[in-house]
Structure formats: structure tokens, C-alpha cells
């Protein structure tokens, strides 16, 4: 079973050719949130979830729906 960070990394590398932290930070996701995601945190705020999914070019359901 992959973690949220595993999914972020896979999508970022497949779609953008960059590591997940770089894609997210370029989209305005804070380094604190990136670190929390690496530790398995699933954001509760809809705007944060949307920003992360938008940065990766996927839907929220695709990224977070399997948790």
C-alpha cells in the first residue's frame, strides 16, 4: 500500500519530471506542509488539498480518494 507521499512523488515525476517537493513548492505549498505530507499527513483544509492536486495536475479524488 502506498502512502500519500508515494503517490505525490510518482505523479510529480511522471507528469512533471521533478521531485514532489519541488512541484508542490513551485505551486505555493509551504515547506512545512510538504514535510507533513512526507510524514503521512493528509490535509483537512479543502483549499490545501485542492492546491496540492492542482499542482500535480490530478483531481483531489485521484490523489486523496484512496486513503
H/I helix tally = 5
In the CATH hierarchy, the third-tier topology is known as: 434 Repressor (Amino-terminal Domain)
End-to-end gap: 10 Å
Order of helices and strands: HHHHH
Q: Helical residue percent?
A: 55-70%
Beta-strand proportion = under 5%
Mean pLDDT reading: 93
- Please give the largest β-sheet: none
Structural category: mainly alpha
Which stretches are low in confidence, meaning pLDDT under 50 for 5 or more residues running? Answer: none
β-strand number: 0
CATH architecture classification: Orthogonal Bundle
Tell me the Rg in angstroms: 10 Å
- What is the count of structural domains? 1
What's the CATH first level? Mainly Alpha
Give the overall form: globular
How would you describe this structure to a colleague?
The structure is a single chain. This protein has 67 residues and is mostly helical. The chain has one domain (4-64): Orthogonal Bundle (434 Repressor (Amino-terminal Domain)), CATH 1.10.260. The chain is built from five helices and no strands. The chain has helices at 4-16, 20-26, 31-38, 46-56, 60-64. The longest helix is centred in the N-terminal third of the chain and has 13 residues, at 4-16.
Write the layout of secondary structure elements.
Layout lengths: L3 H13 L3 H7 L4 H8 L7 H11 L3 H5 L3
Helix pairs in contact: 2-4
Keywords:
67 residues; mainly alpha; 434 Repressor (Amino-terminal Domain)
Quick rundown:
The protein is an all-alpha fold. The protein is built from 5 helices and no strands.
Amino acid at each position: 500500500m502506498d502512502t500519500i507521499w508515494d503517490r505525490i512523488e510518482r505523479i510529480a515525476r511522471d507528469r512533471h519530471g521533478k521531485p514532489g517537493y519541488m512541484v508542490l513548492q513551485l505551486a505555493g505549498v509551504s515547506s512545512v506542509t510538504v514535510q507533513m505530507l512526507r510524514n503521512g499527513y493528509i490535509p483537512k483544509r479543502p483549499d490545501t488539498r485542492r492546491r496540492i492536486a492542482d499542482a500535480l495536475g490530478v483531481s483531489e479524488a485521484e490523489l486523496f480518494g484512496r486513503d
